[in-house]
Specification:
Elements: H1 9-37, H2 41-75
Helix pairs in contact: 1-2
């Protein structure tokens, strides 16, 4: 039996974005551990500041999406 979606589109989009951001972070952590074990950690250390800046920006966009979804959800009458 399929349940009805009660959330609005913006909330579902933000949730999907959070899922992929967390999957990307976990994959990045696995790649970092593997590169350290194979002796290529200098390459990851070179990319880490760039990736850190992008992750910070993406997390801020995600926070804004969730805030907008909460505002829209509270204003819309069902």
């Amino acid at each position: 039996m399929k349940t009805q979606q009660n959330n609005n589109f913006l909330f579902r989009l933000a949730s999907r974005f959070l899922k992929y951001l967390l999957l990307f972070t976990v994959g990045l952590a696995i790649a970092f551990v593997m590169s350290t074990s194979f002796g290529a950690s200098h390459f990851m250390m070179m990319l880490l500041p760039l990736i850190g800046q992008w992750l910070g920006r993406l997390a801020l966009i995600l926070l804004c999406l969730f805030a907008a979804a909460m505002i829209v959800e509270s204003v819309v009458q069902k």
